[in-house]
């Protein structure tokens, strides 16, 4: 075990945060080619830490913990999915939110002094990256000197955003993002040093589930165990931003057949369902051919020979046969490139599908069949199975199918109970699928060819 690995081990409380799983998964390496720290999100991930930076700025276990936590949050949140083209301003916004989050998680000076000593409060916008000096964990009443130097209208808006970062009112990523372009250009933001790695191969490079799925799963479990802020704060998860786009739908016959078979297993059988299928149906018709029926028996008892009898006949017609299925389509960032094929497959089986199709990421967005046909996508960029369980529980959904690559998180507690009680099918799609998260709740499983 090298020296920097020893230090990282010591900075985490003993037996906490699933540290053993993290250390088994990634190498912790001293590297002077990164300015602070970075996670290489590849098949064999590495946590790279600059020892000189640690010596100068993170020379206590508490400060080193803040540096490592900052970088791991980039892995968990997949921040590059929030904006289509990531700029220096976007990376700056990500760090503002992460720094505020980890500071509120550990509101003690021995922890957040890492930020207050690294960033000055006398310059804007650098002052947004740190809490106030001598912060006590209570709502902010004063603002940094760097904000006080702005013009009056600008100062009022920026001060409101800054107070929101460190108070229970909260702000969204977009609110932080919106105040910057009006006040400075890209060159002005790019001169401010940021923590962690922001390159295309690093933790904020997007599609981490695909590039290093095991790393993503382990880091997710670690952060789930971290202490949370005492009150809910907006702008702390991907669910706070719901963006809209369109995709071109395309039909693949094999997917149509695969989904139809899966829907038939989930929908069940019954004569009161909304799904109608063509089949043989028995009806009664008048016929001159003698048959045993009640009317003919009564007429014969009265001494009259009936002219017509009631007899059975078989016809082919559409009749109710099953319940429609609620479809939950994964529209997170890891599904980019295959959403159009998924939409096409669902449209081909629309007679089996509930009138409202449920798109899910970190939140549920309902769309109609017409919107599905037009390729409407509403997504936060992240993924969380909890929103599916909550939606099913609130709306009494008992028959459902989830179309996903499987990186949705393992359902726990009441969420697992809700999914387990339902008749649930899972159709896996994508080049890198994870079958572990939903294995305990899926009744039927299929694979889509995309």
Structure description:
With 450 residues, the protein is α/β, with parallel strands linked by helices. It folds into 3 domains: 3-235, no CATH class; 244-255 and 324-447, Rossmann fold (3-Layer(aba) Sandwich); 272-322, no CATH class. Helices cover 38% and strands 17% of the residues. It is built from 18 helices and 13 strands. It has helices at 3-11, 19-25, 51-57, 61-77, 88-105, 109-118, 145-148, 152-165, 173-179, 186-190, 208-211, 213-224, 253-267, 294-301, 339-348, 369-373, 386-395, 413-421; strands spanning 27-30, 37-40, 46-49, 243-246, 275-287, 309-322, 326-330, 356-360, 364-368, 376-379, 399-404, 423-428, 444-447. Strands 9-8-7-11-12-13 form a 6-stranded mixed sheet, with helices on both faces. α4 (61-77) packs across α12 and α13 (253-267) packs across α15 (339-348). It is elongated, with a radius of gyration of 29 Å. The two termini are 44 Å apart. 41% of the residues are buried.
């Amino acid at each position: 075990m090298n020296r920097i690995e020893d230090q990282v081990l010591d900075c985490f409380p003993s037996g906490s945060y699933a540290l053993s799983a993290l250390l088994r998964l990634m190498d912790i390496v001293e590297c002077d080619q990164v300015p602070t720290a970075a996670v290489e999100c590849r098949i064999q991930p590495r946590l790279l830490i600059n020892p000189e930076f640690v010596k100068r700025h993170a020379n206590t276990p508490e400060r080193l913990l803040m540096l490592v936590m900052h970088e791991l949050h980039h892995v968990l949140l997949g921040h590059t999915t929030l904006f289509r083209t990531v700029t220096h301003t976007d990376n700056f916004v990500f760090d503002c939110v992460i720094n505020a989050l980890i500071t509120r998680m550990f509101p003690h000076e021995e922890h957040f002094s890492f930020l207050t000593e690294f960033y000055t409060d006398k310059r804007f916008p650098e002052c947004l990256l740190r809490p106030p000096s001598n912060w006590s964990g209570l709502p902010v009443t004063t603002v940094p000197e760097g904000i006080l130097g702005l013009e009056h209208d600008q100062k009022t808006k920026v001060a409101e955003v800054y107070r929101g970062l460190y108070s229970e009112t909260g702000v969204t990523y977009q609110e932080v993002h919106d105040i910057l372009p009006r006040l400075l250009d890209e060159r002005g933001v790019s001169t401010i040093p940021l923590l962690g790695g922001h390159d295309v191969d690093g933790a904020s490079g997007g599609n981490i589930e695909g590039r290093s799925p095991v790393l993503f799963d382990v880091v997710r479990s670690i952060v789930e165990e971290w202490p949370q802020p005492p009150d809910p704060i907006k702008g702390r998860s991907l669910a706070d931003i719901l963006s809209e786009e369109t995709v071109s739908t395309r039909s693949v016959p094999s997917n149509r057949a695969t989904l139809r078979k899966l829907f038939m297993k989930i929908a069940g059988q019954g004569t009161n369902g909304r799904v109608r299928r063509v089949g043989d149906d028995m009806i009664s018709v008048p016929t001159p051919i003698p048959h045993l029926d009640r009317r003919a028996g009564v007429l014969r008892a009265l001494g009259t020979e009936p002219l017509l009898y009631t007899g059975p006949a078989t016809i082919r017609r559409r009749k109710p046969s099953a319940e429609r299925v609620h479809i939950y389509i994964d529209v997170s960032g890891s599904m980019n490139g295959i959403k159009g094929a998924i939409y096409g497959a669902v449209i081909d089986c629309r007679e089996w599908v509930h009138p409202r199709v449920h798109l899910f990421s970190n939140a549920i967005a309902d769309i109609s069949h017409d919107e599905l046909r037009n390729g409407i996508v509403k997504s936060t960029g992240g993924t969380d199975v909890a929103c599916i369980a909550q939606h099913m529980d609130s709306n009494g959904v008992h028959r459902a199918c989830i179309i996903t690559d499987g990186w949705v998180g393992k359902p726990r507690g009441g969420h697992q109970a809700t999914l387990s009680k339902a008749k649930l099918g899972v159709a896996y799609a994508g080049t890198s699928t994870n079958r572990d998260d939903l294995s305990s709740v899926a009744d039927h499983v299929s694979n889509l060819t995309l």
